[in-house]
Amino acid sequence: MIPAKLKFLGLILGTVILVPIGCDRSPVEVPEVAVRTPASTDRLLRYEGRLDPATASTTERELAVSDLVAPVEIPFATLESKHHAGVVDIDLESRLATLRIEGVGRLEPDKCGIPVDLREISAGRFAIAFREIPLNRLWLIIWDPADDSTDWIPVGRDDTDYLMFRGAIGRDRALHWVVYDNRSRKNYLLDFTEGPDGWERIGPEIELPTLDVPAGLNYEMEPPVFLFEVDDHLELVAGNLHLVFEGREMRVSRIPDCEKVLEVVRTDRGLAMLCIRRNPDAEGVFKLVLPDSKPRVLSWDEGVPFGLSWDGSRDSVEYELAADPASYGRLLAHDLRRGQNGGLLELGSDNIEGRVAWAQIYYLNGIMDAIYLARRDEGASEVFLPMLGDLRLRLEIEMRLLDRLLSEDSGMYTKAFTVDRSLALFAVQTSRFLLLFDRYRRMFPEAAALRSHEDVRSRVTSLAGHIEVLATSGEEDHWLEKGRHHLRWPLGCAFPFDGLGVPYNHQNEWAYSIFESRRASGGTGDDDDLTPQRDVISHFVDHLAPTGRFPGLEDWNYWWGKALDGYDEASATSTNMPAYAGDESLAWISFRTIDLMSVLSSLDFMPEIDADGMIESAEACVRRGEVFPFAARELIEAGVEPRLRLSIATQYARSGSPWELANQVWSLAMLPRAEHEEGSATPIHGNSK
Q1: What are phi and psi of 83, to 5 degrees?
Q2: Do 263 and 339 form a contact (C-beta atoms < 8 A)?
Q3: Alpha carbons 631 and 582: distance in angstroms, whole number
């Protein structure tokens, strides 16, 4: 009999196998028509590397994916406690995970989901943070390996679908968690203790001050959180925030000239921190903050610092400097493994709070970027080749879980942006699903088909079920050419700005996804049914790029129409926002990146646009850091070899949040040939929207 946790795909007829149903580990007999037994079942996916020199200077590297055959260890994910480290296996069919700790044992939870944190507590037991898949509900598991017993404590807040785990520290019979509530846009400290009747939450939650994220209060879930016990009190570091807790009182301080802390280590004299500076200049972008001496800015010429540690025998803070392709690869692996949730990031998450669109899709594109660059660039292959197999495996695990999510009725929906927390489809999000799936299919034609792909394509193309509608009126003539297509939030819908046209980047990304989808299926520039998408791009070009070049930063608006001009209540423009002063703000770097990539993608379908001017100005935007480094992908597709200034490449060479991986990959690939320039660096400001 085949083991219960195995499901083989292949060609042996008449076999009956056992597969877990739902989240129950009890096996149920299921007839299977076609099964191929692999030579080995110790890995779920296996790869064969082939080196095919395409030219004297370019090596094409292909990775062939074998069938899904068994539970697999998730690459770049390690849950570390004081004395132990655990790895996580997942069965993609059942979505059941196993935590393996060498020398301790195996925890096999009976709920669909993954453990995301591991802490040692009293009497050889462990406190484990567990996130359900795909519902994202959080649990605290108290596990005693001696008798394999578990206690499950749900962790939530009233009127909240679920909390996001951010960090933890535990000792003896006390445990502290930091969680994020997307509904309130706040981080909270929760306390747990072991009482006579077992483990329980104690005391009221403590609301934490803002982490001072440059992108604003909607992004408080992004900076990494570090917790330490120092001299019998709790200390927390996140963003530029440093908290010292004395009982339930907290002493608040800010780390000067620090955009966010990337790494923290405890020394004999307190905490040492590695920061990315808020205002980088000619001195450098990284700063080492020591507990009892003046902070030190690390020079651009030193390399990219990572791997902060404390050497007690030498009484010194140590770190490694990445300055060549091999060390760039070690840096990338380091940041992946120490990322959010023990390196598990958003794996298996749902999109209710927008985490698929705003985080997971970014880092999945980053993984594909690493493979893409290694295939086409000899220098980049030196950085990424040693980890390509694990990157490809991680991508496949995440894509299959995401495909399964999007195959479910509410898989693409979010509650995060509606006034009443009702479920809605937003084109700026669903377009990203389609862009990701089309890119995956182009890059890996040998991989198993994504069963939700055509449904995603159909919904995005038609806007079926979306909160936006395709419109040709609703604005003053000077804003909207008569009959020109654009996207609007219809009056009375559940979005805060009902009755208004969507911002440039929202509709540009929708057009981008349709152009890329059409390109993937062999469409041509004269396809008549692309008129709405052409109208969307023409609208942006006419208003912001009439000279045939992308606008300067001071002229690159976020919104347009009534949303920019403002309106009064008498105009009956909006139900949810009856009067509005207008939004004349300039586009954030993430919005500019979407605009730029969308226009570049449209050039094959819109010969009336000055392609040479757009490409030339796009290259300058990328080089100067006016858009994110990953926009370079569209430059390559347009036939231009992108460059980055050294200051820009260095600023993005570390990732502290899941969405930053794509920028990190491009920066590490381009650092060896980055341009040196005089003067101060361009400050980075970005978000995952």
Answers
A1: -120, -5
A2: no
A3: 29
Crossing angle for the helix pair 504-520 and 453-462, to the nearest 10 degrees = 130
User: What is the β-pairing status of strands 249-254 and 260-267?
Assistant: unpaired
Cβ(380)–Cβ(58) below 8 Å: no
DSSP 3-state of 232: coil
Lowest mean pLDDT among 49-53, 200-204, 210-214: 49-53
> What is the amino acid identity at position 414?
T
Residues 6+ apart with CB under 8 A from 64: 47, 48, 50, 446
589-592: which pairs have CB atoms within 8 A and are 24 or more residues apart? 589/626, 589/627, 589/628, 589/684, 589/685, 589/686, 590/215, 590/505, 590/628, 590/686, 590/687, 590/688, 590/689, 591/503, 591/504, 591/505, 591/558, 591/689, 592/505, 592/553, 592/556, 592/621, 592/626, 592/627
Domain extents in the chain: 16-65, 71-208
Note if the bond before 325 is cis, omega within 30 degrees: no
How many C-beta atoms surround the C-beta of residue 347 within 10 A?
24
CB contact at 8 A, 67 and 418: no
How far is Cα 483 from Cα 684, in angstroms, rounded to an integer?
A: 39
C-alpha span between 425 and 356 (Å, rounded): 13
Mean pLDDT of 529-552: 98
Across the range 3-16, mean pLDDT stands at: 25
Cβ atoms within 10 Å, residue 154: 9
The pLDDT tens digits of the residues spanning 576-592 come to 999 999 999 999 999 99
Instruction: Please give the helix or strand (H or E) that residue 253 lies within, else none.
Output: strand 249-254
Q: What amino acid occupies position 570?
A: A
Task: Measure the CA–CA gap between 341 and 82, rounded to whole angstroms.
Answer: 16
User: Mind spelling out the 3-state secondary structure of 190-211?
Assistant: EEEEEECCEEEEEEEEEECCCC
Distance CA 366, CA 616 (A): 24
Would you give the DSSP letter of residue 358?
Answer: I
The answer to whether the CB of 670 falls within 8 A of the CB of 632 is yes
